[in-house]
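Exercise 7. Predict the joint structure of the components listed below.
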Amino acid sequence: MAVGLTLIFGVMRVVNFAHGDMMVWGMYLAFVLATRAGLDPYLAFPVCAVALFALGVVVQRGLVDPIIEAPHEMQILLMLGVALVLENTALLIFGPEPARVRSPLARLAWEVGPLYVDVARLVTFAVAVVLTLALSLFLHRTDLGRLIRASADNHYGALVIGADVRRIYATAFGIGAACVGAAGALVSPILPFQPPTGLSLSVTSFNIVIIGGMGSLVGAFIGGLLVSVAESLGAVFLRPSLKELFSFSLLIVILLFRPAGLFGKRTP
Amino acid sequence: MRRGRGEPSEGSPTQKMWAAALAVAVLLALPAVLSGYAVTIFILIFFYAFLAQAWNVVGGYAGQLSAGHAAFVGIGGYTAALLFERGVTPWIGMFAGGALAAVLGAIIGYLGFRFGLRGFYFVLLTVAFAEICRILASNVEAVGGAVGLYITFTGNPRQFQFQDQRAYYYIALALMLLATGVTALIERRRFGIYLTAIREDETACEALGVDVLKYKLLAMIVSSFLAGLGGTFYAFQNFSLQPGAVFGIPLSVEIVIRPIIGGAGTLLGPILGSFILTPLGEVSRSYFGQSGLHGAHLIVYGVLLVAVVLFLPQGAYPYLRKLLSRRNIA
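Solution:
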């Protein structure tokens, strides 16, 4: 999920406050597909990715594009507005009750020595690794991927060599949104969700991205691991409700001393 | 940032004084003719305008986008409520709460400004601090834990409690006027000019020898002190404090969105924003809430926010003023 955010931020320097809410939409989409069409979320995630890709392109084209030159603050506010609309539309449609998608896979567990390994989590993790690798290959090995990185590096430079920067931005935003869509569908059997979940998901993914380093895919991935380990340890040693305290403290420390994150090159 | 460049406004100072005096007189007289429900709405309008004005000092004039102002409201409210339990009247607790909020503001501001966090990074820092406050408040049993604090109703004006909602109306009005007065004072002095200059070009200010850190910090302290005062009002008007409600991100959003829509960095923008958004929010909340559709007012907020950013990036107040002056010339 954070991989998607880092792509959007790294490429366009647009802070996507609606990130978590887009993920929640991915979850609800998986929920609808599972309950109406009987599609298992582990098969439905590409559908969610495509749908969110479209949403991302529309948001970028219609809303972000006109103010891409405006100061950062304006884009933060814009995305905050989008987040409010997305979250509360979900609330209107699906109601405030927590939802959860059932999948036969989620009930399986393998016994490996003394440990129980949850199959659903394992699959989610594997897909996340594959997606991150694929995205990384795409950004480094294909023409479009190189163009995306070039536009991120130097907007005008990319314009000068004749790149269609607007199209590239729309693509990047779409891919970023598609990542969250897929992520949303994949965690929907593990994590019960409701519309306000989006906000905390956004905050968590900002955490991850800042800690890992803006614009770095590997950083986002490792940041994700770090934050979840910190929160799990916090939940073990202290009360579970205190676990977020760790990631926020970690965030403040990283912001102050290493604002580019652990794997980022750029300074803010 | 980009808004309210302090262009000379129309009308002579005396004219403006008369207009302001007239507006205040109307607001003072209003409760006599208003229904109970309308009084409640006006209390919210004034209260949110007050918080928005407090935010405006650091967010609008100095251009430092804080998304964690709920933390100051929460600290202020909790301080006053806890002191009240130990027999200290909220009239004193209010200022203690403001002072503690200012201390927190100073800490956040010092860390953020000293380490040069700008834009999005500053937003995140403020959010992180507010969230930490929320998590602590909901986990420490001594301050009520997740249940929060409840204040026993005594109805004694000396304890900031009133039988009559109209008393809250006048206090909220006074708070709004206080914050606006403070802001007007800041705007006229060199301090305000420095803040606007920092917003427009921080590097240039530093090059000219302006102590940027000091002025940004001062703005943060004034802003968080005012927001802390608001916490007491919140606590003693609602007779309860819940960690999620006073420290949560939704309250911070309520505080930020009003000055942005009304016009950040202008004296009347936050008030206008509150006069637009609060009734809209309350009416749609109760209208749609009755039919079980929660969150409709937030969709309205979201759409308005997107529209303002796209079409009126300076906010509604500067736009209105431009419209009026154009008509005067024609």
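Discussion. The longest helix of chain A spans residues 41-64.
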